[in-house]
Design goal:
It contains 18 helices and 27 strands. The chain is α/β, with parallel strands linked by helices.
Length: about 625
């Protein structure tokens, strides 16, 4: 007689709230096996989480109020590696998501969609030190440390997983780390054709020799059993956080993955996050190499305070005489200049002069940026939200009062580009933004063109920084006030890191324009005093109960004012913790209201964290849940 089993699986469905489903099966599938299971009339991918013989489960089956469906036989199904399953299971303790939803986000798309399978399902656990190590140093020094670490890991016959935030960073890492080990280097990217995809898979599955595997977070969970070291380069980058539910932070995922694998893990950056530095000082994390108190760069900082008065048609002078002189001097010496603007497009805000109405995205309720694009040599203007990605045609009149008097406020990089070209038409100026470089490949072409020429000006935002490795002669922040006005509790840290990174990629001078008095942050940046900056930042976060001294859980729901009130009644019956602070987004209107509930849970209170995680799991699916988001308003 054929034995029968009860197979419990977790569906791999984006954002699913389903914890598990059960089926009958005549095959005893190992835990972690990929299966296709029938769900609501269609076949969905799922992973086996438990298996019980029918005899052992007979009592529970008799008491059940439903009947189990028969699972189609799938004798050659592949398995998810133990380290990935273990990491996902640990993440359910700190994210209000099911294990299936977490695995859906972790598994590479080609694995999830069945294009390939994990080759080796044998459980391999190494014996490396799994406590995270923090490496804070200049880019060139970090890569020298990485080279030494990789050689040491190869000597012990281990492979290295080297994770970078974007595909642009893969090229730099490949060039800097691949010399002499080309036959052991594997880069995982979105392959452009089947041949390249097949070559990449073959190289990844070749386990005869240890490998250096360079990839981005989306392809990091590759399942090789010989990985004994994980490196997270540019660990402070916001690109490590997913922009879709359940908003996983891949730094935390990779730390859990390394622990399950028994591998060492290094978090490296020029200026790491305050969370990493605080944990390093508490010895929760270790220091890789020597402790850094001060960073030394060749480019000094010059601060220019602008005191010109705004006029009716010209709000203020965009370029100070000092900036013009510095740029002109650099260009005369055939140097390269980078002008940093904090906001994309022509302007970050468009408002009505008559009634004060500000054009906002209906989804995120953040102000639209005004962006110019060119199509068939004709200019088009769009309202674009960097938060939600919504893009609509720019309006000609105010929808509130019908006025034609719409005014652009703030500084966008397209405005910087236009004004520089108007004032200095003989200068070779290149704009790097989403309109001129919609893909990473196009951005690389734009930057290559810039550095190939003997001198010129590049205007860009944060997206330009990863491309400035060759180094510019002079750089400038057009408006320090705009750069520091980002509405996030991490604003000072982000600004400090920006200035330090500009110094790192600049050879002669970094000029900062501001209309406010400078403070200690600029002083610390000019001296490279990272220790003193972190002293102040850690002290402030302790007082305000910000991460890492608390865990933020942000609950958000939207709709009309009446609908939001009704939703809040439901939410309060579920979210009963007294730590919850309820408040309305200050940019809300009666038609589009955004309501929040913020919980600050002390980092050492694991019991309360577990209770709140279980509570918010029960919230309706239209409620947005984020852990330690950059913005809480």
């Amino acid at each position: 007689m054929t034995s029968m089993y009860v197979i419990e699986v977790i569906p791999l469905i984006r954002g699913t709230q389903l914890e598990s489903l059960s089926y009958y099966s005549s095959i005893s599938y190992p835990i972690g096996t990929f299966l296709k299971v029938p769900i609501r009339g269609s076949q969905k991918s799922a992973i086996v989480t438990s298996i019980t013989s029918v005899g052992a489960a007979k009592t529970a089956l008799k008491a059940a109020t439903f009947s189990l469906r028969k699972l189609p036989n799938q004798p050659n199904a592949s398995c998810v590696p133990h380290s990935i399953r273990t990491a996902a299971e640990r993440l359910t303790e700190c994210y209000p998501a099911s294990m299936g939803a977490i695995l859906y986000n972790l598994l590479p798309a080609d694995i999830r969609e069945g294009q390939r399978t994990y080759k080796d399902s044998v459980v391999v656990t190494h014996d490396e030190e799994t406590t995270p190590q923090v490496l804070m140093a200049r880019l060139d020094e970090r890569y020298r440390s990485y080279q030494s670490h990789i050689r040491s890991t190869f000597a012990k016959r281990g492979s290295v997983l080297f994770v970078v935030p974007t595909s642009t960073d893969i090229l730099y890492a490949k060039r800097e780390l691949g010399h002499g080990i080309e036959d052991r280097l594997v880069t995982i990217t979105t392959a452009s054709n089947k041949k390249k995809y097949a070559e990449m898979v073959a190289a990844l599955e070749d386990t005869k020799f240890s490998k250096l595997i360079i990839t981005t977070p989306g392809n990091a969970y590759i399942g090789r059993g010989d990985i004994t070291s994980v490196i997270i380069e540019q660990s402070a980058s916001a690109h490590y956080v997913d922009r879709s539910r359940p908003y996983l932070d891949h730094r935390e995922v990779l730390i859990a993955y390394a622990k399950a694998q028994g591998a060492s893990i290094i978090l490296g950056d020029t200026v790491v996050r305050t969370e990493e530095e605080a944990k390093r000082r508490e010895d929760t994390y270790f220091t890789y190499g020597e402790e850094v108190k001060r960073l030394v760069f060749s480019a000094p900082i010059h601060v220019v305070k602008q005191n010109d008065k705004p006029q009716t048609e010209v709000p203020f002078q965009l370029f100070s005489p000092a900036l013009i002189k510095s740029v002109t001097t650099a260009l005369e010496a055939r140097g390269h200049v980078f002008l940093y603007g904090a906001r994309r497009g022509l302007a970050p805000v468009v408002a009505c002069v008559d009634c004060g109405y500000i054009f906002r995205c209906p989804d995120s309720h953040t102000p639209y940026s005004l962006v110019r694009t060119m199509k068939n040599d004709l200019e088009e203007r769009w309202f674009v939200s960097s938060t939600s990605g919504k893009r609509v045609r720019a309006a000609d009149v105010c929808p509130h009062c019908g006025s034609w008097r719409l005014k652009e406020r703030g500084i966008g990089i397209q405005q910087v580009y236009d004004e520089w070209k108007e004032k200095f038409p003989e200068t070779d100026v290149i704009l790097l933004d989403h309109s001129t470089a919609p893909t990473p490949q196009k951005a690389q072409q734009v930057v290559k063109e810039f550095f190939t020429k003997k001198g010129g000006v590049l205007v860009g935002t944060q997206i330009a920084l990863p491309h400035l490795h060759p180094g510019v002669d002079m750089s400038a922040i057009i408006s320090l006030d705009a750069a520091r006005s980002t509405p996030t509790w991490r604003a000072d840290e982000s600004l400090f890191r920006l200035i330090i990174k500009l110094r790192e990629c600049t050879k002669r001078e970094v000029l900062i324009q501001t209309r406010s008095d400078t403070d200690l942050l600029v002083e610390y940046s000019s001296k490279g005093a990272v220790e003193r900056f972190f002293d102040d930042e850690i002290s402030l976060r302790k007082q305000l109960k910000y991460p890492p001294f608390s865990t933020f859980i942000l609950v958000t729901w939207s709709g009309s004012e009446a609908a939001v009130r009704e939703s809040e009644k439901v939410i309060k019956t579920i979210l009963t913790n007294p730590l919850a602070e309820f408040y309305t987004n200050p940019h809300s209107t009666a038609a589009h209201t955004h309501r929040h509930a913020l919980l600050r849970i002390p980092s050492d209170d694991k019991v309360t964290l577990a209770e709140v995680i279980n509570q918010v799991r029960k919230l309706p699916p239209y409620v947005k849940l984020e852990i330690n988001p950059e913005r809480i308003v």
